[in-house]
Amino acid sequence: MPDVQPHDPALVPTHTTAATSSVAHWVAQHHGIAVQQCHLIRRGLNDNYALRSSDGARYVARLYSIRPRGGFNIDFETSLLAHLDARGVGVAAPIPASDGRMHVPLQFPEGPRALVLFRHAAGAVPDTLDDIELTGHALARVHQAARDYAGPPSRYTLDGHHLAGRTLGYLQAHPELDAELLETYRALVLRLLGELAGAEAGLTRVVCHGDTHGFNNHVATDPDGTRTSVFFDFDDAGPGFLAYDLSVLPWSYMFRKSLKQPDELLRERWARYLHGYRAGGGEVSDGDLAALPLFLQFRHLWNLGEAAGRLHHWGTNAVPADWLQKQLEVFEAWGRLDLRA
């Protein structure tokens, strides 16, 4: 057998999944926590690990992945979470390292990444109508408490360019898209940007969570019977439109169920979600509600762009050309929806 080279210079890594032992070592080294158990929750946009310390405390460690949109938004995210936590909002707040840093830079084979340790969010994803209403109530508290945030600014604004313009750039690099389909998506993006330009004067602006699809918050009941909702995964947060943050929940349901129209369950959930948001002090204008179909489409473009921007990591099977072709019918159907309640 020929000798194996210790390193092949032709090998260019695009994403490294760290072993759980590495994560446990880094948390012990930088946070001074004796880790008893560690397992990988999921890898993808970021790599998340569940940890349990020797005293039984639970944490989540996130290794931020290199993303096509640019640098990490960690300074904004962790400062916003600390601000919300200080206001009594239910969030999985970050835990500083022993030297006070909110994130630990790490050098991976593919480039610099970062480690952040968060408190564990007890409970489970919202399931019942009561859970959905509580989620809406909690989101309103996030938006209200973030109004006087004055920490480091976000690197990103959740505007038309961020939600759709970047996607068009990613699709241009797709090796299986023909010129006709790419031109159709270009026309779609330009049309939606035009609609947004005509509507944005009447839209409410907030600090968006950015990914409130129903799986980034847990509902728990404490020993006294009080039910609470805790939000986590704020790495897509930034200033943006209320209608966008509200649209992500119905988008998630229709996307997962492959629906072009809301079914009865979604309409029930949506009504309870809005009721909870308003009961929590959130104000939703008629303009915000009228813009929901527009932002459903923006969300769908952003989501497929997240996959299209990671062809080097996830491959073309994550966004095949025939699936992209079929989504044009989805955009058309969603543009005609009426989600006012």
Automatic annotation (TrEMBL):
<comment type="similarity">
    <text>Belongs to the pseudomonas-type ThrB family.</text>
</comment>
<dbReference type="GO" id="GO:0009088">
    <property type="term" value="P:threonine biosynthetic process"/>
</dbReference>
<dbReference type="InterPro" id="IPR002575">
    <property type="entry name" value="Aminoglycoside_PTrfase"/>
</dbReference>
<keyword id="KW-0418">Kinase</keyword>
<dbReference type="Pfam" id="PF01636">
    <property type="entry name" value="APH"/>
</dbReference>
<dbReference type="GO" id="GO:0004413">
    <property type="term" value="F:homoserine kinase activity"/>
</dbReference>
<protein>
    <submittedName>
        <fullName>Homoserine kinase</fullName>
        <ecNumber>2.7.1.39</ecNumber>
    </submittedName>
</protein>
<dbReference type="InterPro" id="IPR050249">
    <property type="entry name" value="Pseudomonas-type_ThrB"/>
</dbReference>
<feature type="domain" description="Aminoglycoside phosphotransferase">
    <location>
        <begin position="46"/>
        <end position="277"/>
    </location>
</feature>
<keyword id="KW-0808">Transferase</keyword>
<dbReference type="InterPro" id="IPR011009">
    <property type="entry name" value="Kinase-like_dom_sf"/>
</dbReference>
